[in-house]
From TrEMBL:
Name of the featured protein: alpha-L-rhamnosidase
Enzyme class: hydrolase
Taxonomy of the source species: Bacteria, Bacillati, Actinomycetota, Actinomycetes, Kitasatosporales
GO terms of biological process kind: carbohydrate metabolic process
Start and end residues of each Alpha-L-rhamnosidase six-hairpin glycosidase domain: 436-788
MF GO annotations: alpha-L-rhamnosidase activity
Domain Bacterial alpha-L-rhamnosidase N-terminal: residue ranges: 158-325
PANTHER family: ALPHA-RHAMNOSIDASE (EUROFUNG) (PTHR33307), ALPHA-RHAMNOSIDASE (EUROFUNG)-RELATED (PTHR33307:SF6)
């Protein structure tokens, strides 16, 4: 027994601070849709070896924290996804929260408080109704973009103002002539009939006492514009409408609410058409001057008509689309006077230009990813997407920028009519504005270029939803593509809330029998020639996005509540596939997309891959069953954990029984056998040998399609064949990753040989399915982070980390860093002579272990690494 001391005071950890308080809402908006926000934070400080043992969260009505509700002391080492300890927020309610943690030393100080404000949480909060311009209803082709406006008076100085706004279609809303945000293509694309996102803006600074004007243009967007290669229109509705509710508190204590209703006026302006695929047409002569300002005469405009309140109104909780970069392109003049634009890299976005000329003068901008043999735009591969912006000038100098569209391009051609000069051109790169968290670098610049291409392809395709490509008449949320790419995506940009939103739609649109549509949001794809697709478009590898994407999010960010929310979807998909198994336990009975686009598949029939698609399908059933079992274990559902582990075991056995021989004859066959636990333990070494032998026999060229590619390098390095893994990575012959780089790729290609070894582009043979911006093969970057640099999470959210660099081939150094929920983890290694030096830094709250490369060095693993910097020097 110890004698109590009068000196005793609670021990404190003054060196560690609790920072970066955040909820699961990444929208950047002033309010949150989450009535009980999940809470996360980070720890900072220089003291090495910091561990969190417990935390306490307080929630209060104001920053004095008097009368705060406390979580009490909660034992936990995790810094993410903690429950809200107080009662749920009501609509518009503001609360403050703060947190302190007990580390291995003692309690920290309280963090700085963070503010949360609830958005409109209930349909009953909306007095606004969607409004539209009556004459715009039922328009069947791209046509003039409807404009809506309303003026109102504020009798006193506004002290606080919130604008809740969304649309059927995509909107740009302004207050007194100023845009309410730089957000583009709002409200993005969701399963509109079930879930329509709105945004909440603080517009206090845009209002003034006296007369004010609210205004919006509403483009067709995904709601009403062209979708799919059938160029269907009006997929969700035939009327563009705005829903807005402005709530103002005045200095004198009064309030003013302005909502969309039949007091709004509607008309048209210079935007004659705007379509996501086709581009936009603007006639500046028809621009109604000052229509966004108070005082505009809208007497000849129509009185707006009112629609019922849409279902599923929820505030967006993920980052919006914005201009994320501006590029000054290279310009040249072609013999016919056309201005050729080269952005230097393949991007998603629009061209902004300044032109000067007479009224009626025109400027036309067309876009393409690549040039043909004559140096002109190769537009055939855009298929039905016109990707053309047209302007008619009103006389004088004008800044020209398209609205409500985006293009996938590196090249553009600008044609101006006589007398019109183009004075300035820039490329505005558009993307979902996700936070960049991952970096990779190594001593081989070709690999660095490959990595940069992966990053560009993610950025260019994380636009509203994770798309296959940004340029042709698709730009759809193809499930198989993100299935392949999710782990890379999650390490490169903070993709949690973006993919969480998409998964919510996947869950909504999953069929009652558990089948997952090929694209989410689910739009009718009609015939998919030449394949006869199964189950209204469900296929293995694509539907498995339902299990793979939530798993990737959980592994990267550690939010157990997210896994819990998508669990029913995961299970329904696995049950669906289990229900398709034949008596012999394999999924053999249906057409499949299979190892799509494997380089040996006939160009016009990408599903006819070398690896038997029934084997691939069965392997994916086993894979998803295992991921589901793991999720069930995490969520404490032990019955499910057992049941699906058993499904995995049975299905793996069945696959091996039927295809054990075949699997060993292809790279994808071996990779799936190893990575999905198909090969029995006793056979794993031999399968690894077979895979390595296949790679050698193919001179290091890759032979996998969409479904095999993510797994082939991990399968090689995981079975001790790092040398062959590097051969595949570094091979420059067609097909291969660096082949693309050496052919000048700046984004990942859809086909390994999009440009053939002789430099030509085979558009005909490929049936014009030839995109230069498809991220699926970019799945390679997960291996760059995890194996080349050697930075891996060994528990969800990187609470425990493995540093396991795998130097190989001629690489002399590599480094990676990832801004994890705990803070930034970094690893850098270099080889000099026979000495390997590894520098690693772990953030507070994490622990790590170091696994030395096999074979090269005889060093032992080092366990128990704490936060802080570490250097390990190994001599061979
Ligand atoms: C898309 C894909 C997709 C595939 C499946 C293509 O047209 O661009 O990336 O996964 O179809 O059929």
């Amino acid at each position: 027994m110890t004698t109590p001391s009068f000196e005793a005071s609670p021990t404190t950890d003054t060196a560690t601070k609790v920072t970066a308080l955040r909820t699961a809402d990444d929208s950047g908006l002033v309010a949150t849709p989450l009535p009980e926000p999940r809470l996360s934070w980070s720890l900072t400080g220089d003291r090495p070896g910091v561990l969190q043992h417990a935390y306490e969260v307080q929630v209060a009505a104001d920053r004095s924290f008097t009368g705060a509700v406390s979580s009490g002391e909660v034992e936990s080492g995790a810094v993410t996804d903690h429950p809200w300890p107080a009662g749920p927020l009501g609509s518009r309610e503001v609360r403050h929260w703060r947190v302190r943690v007990r580390t291995d030393v003692g309690w920290t100080q309280w963090s700085q408080p963070a503010r949360v404000e609830a958005a409109l949480l209930d349909a009953g909060d909306w007095t606004a109704r969607p409004v539209h311009v009556p004459s715009d209803r039922g328009r069947t082709s791209p046509g003039p973009v409807p404009l809506l406006r309303r003026e109102f008076d504020l009798p006193a100085e506004p002290v606080s103002a919130r604008l809740y706004v969304t649309s059927l279609g995509v909107h740009r809303t302004g207050v007194n002539g100023r845009p309410v945000s730089g957000e583009l293509l709002e409200p993005g694309w969701t399963s509109y009939p079930n879930r329509l996102l709105y945004a909440t803006y603080d517009v206090t600074g845009l209002l003034s006492p006296g007369r004010n004007a609210l205004s919006a243009a509403v483009g067709d967007g995904w709601y009403r514009g062209h979708l799919t290669w059938h160029k269907n229109r009006d997929v969700y509705g035939d009327t563009s409408a705005l829903l807005a509710q402005l709530e103002v508190t005045l200095a004198d204590g009064g309030t003013v609410t302005v909502v969309t209703d039949d007091r709004w006026r509607g008309g048209y302006g210079g935007l004659l058409a705007a379509d996501l695929y086709d581009g936009c047409a603007r006639d500046l002569r028809q621009e109604p001057h000052g229509w966004r300002l108070p005082g505009f005469d809208d007497r000849d405009w129509e009185r707006a008509a009112v629609l019922p309140l849409p279902a599923g109104l929820t505030q967006r909780a993920h980052p919006p689309v914005r201009v994320v970069q501006v590029i000054r392109p290279e310009l040249s003049t072609l013999p016919d006077g056309t201005i050729a634009v080269d952005a230097g890299e393949n991007v998603t976005g629009v061209l902004r230009l300044r032109a000067d000329g007479p009224a009626g003068g025109t400027v036309t901008v067309r876009h393409a990813e690549v040039l043909d043999d004559d140096g002109r735009l190769l537009t055939g591969i855009l298929r039905g997407a016109r990707a053309t912006d047209e302007y008619t000038l009103s006389g004088g100098t004008a800044e020209l920028e398209p609205e409500f569209t985006f293009h996938g391009f590196r090249h553009a051609e600008i044609d101006a009519s006589p007398g019109v000069t183009v004075e300035h051109v820039e490329v505005a790169v558009m993307a979902g504005d996700l936070r960049r968290i991952g970096e990779f670098h190594c001593s081989d610049d070709r690999v660095n270029a490959l990595y940069a291409n992966v990053v560009r392809s993610q950025r260019g395709n994380f636009l509203a939803v994770p798309t296959d490509c940004p340029q042709r008449d698709e730009r759809l949320g193809w499930t198989g593509d993100i299935m392949a790419f999710a782990p890379t995506a999650c390490a490169t940009f903070d993709s949690r809330s973006f993919l969480d939103s998409w998964l919510t739609d996947l869950g909504i649109e999953q069929r009652p029998d558990g089948a997952v549509p090929l694209v989410i949001p689910d739009v009718d794809l009609g015939e998919l020639p030449p394949m006869d697709l199964p189950f209204a478009g469900t296929t293995a590898g694509w539907g498995d996005a339902a299990t793979v994407v939530p798993t990737a999010l959980f592994d990267a960010y550690g939010h157990r509540s997210l896994l819990g929310r998508h669990y029913a979807t995961m299970r329904a998909w696995v049950d669906f596939t289990a229900g398709r198994l034949d008596d012999d336990g394999t999924w053999s009975g249906n057409a499949q997309l299979g190892d799509w686009l494997d380089p040996a598949a006939p160009p016009e029939d990408p599903a006819r891959a070398t690896t038997d698609s029934a084997y691939v399908a069965t392997a994916f059933v086993a894979h998803s069953a295992r991921l589901l079992a793991d999720a069930a274990r995490e969520l404490g559902r032990s019955d499910d954990a057992e049941r699906y582990a058993e499904l995995h075991r049975r299905t793996a056995e069945a696959a091996w029984r039927k295809w054990g021989g075949h699997a060993r004859t292809t790279q994808t066959g071996c990779a799936l056998a190893l990575e999905f636990g198909i090969a029995p333990a006793a056979e794993r070494a031999a399968v690894g040998e077979s895979l390595a032998a296949l790679v050698r026999a193919n001179d290091g060229r890759i032979a996998t399609g969409f479904l095999g590619t993510p797994f082939v390098l991990p399968a090689l390095s995981g079975s001790g064949h790092t040398a062959e893994a590097y051969r595949l990575l570094l091979n420059t012959e067609c097909p291969g990753w660096l082949y693309q780089v050496e052919r000048g790729a700046t984004t990942m290609w859809e086909r390994w040989d999009a440009i053939r070894p002789d430099g030509t582009i085979d558009t005909e043979k490929a049936g014009t399915m030839l995109s230069f911006n498809h991220y699926a093969y970019g799945a390679v970057a997960a291996w760059l982070y995890g194996s080349v640099a050697g930075l891996r999470a060994t528990s969800p959210g990187y609470r425990t980390i493995e540093i396991a660099p795998r130097p190989g081939s001629a690489l002399t150094s590599a480094s990676a860093s990832i801004a994890t929920p705990y803070g930034t983890v970094s690893v850098a290694w270099s080889v000099r002579g026979d000495t390997l030096t590894v520098d690693a830094e772990l953030p507070p709250g994490t622990t790590g272990r170091f696994l030395p490369p096999e074979g090269l060095h005889s060093a032992q693993p080092v366990t128990g690494l704490g936060s802080g910097r570490h250097r390990l020097v190994l001599r061979g």
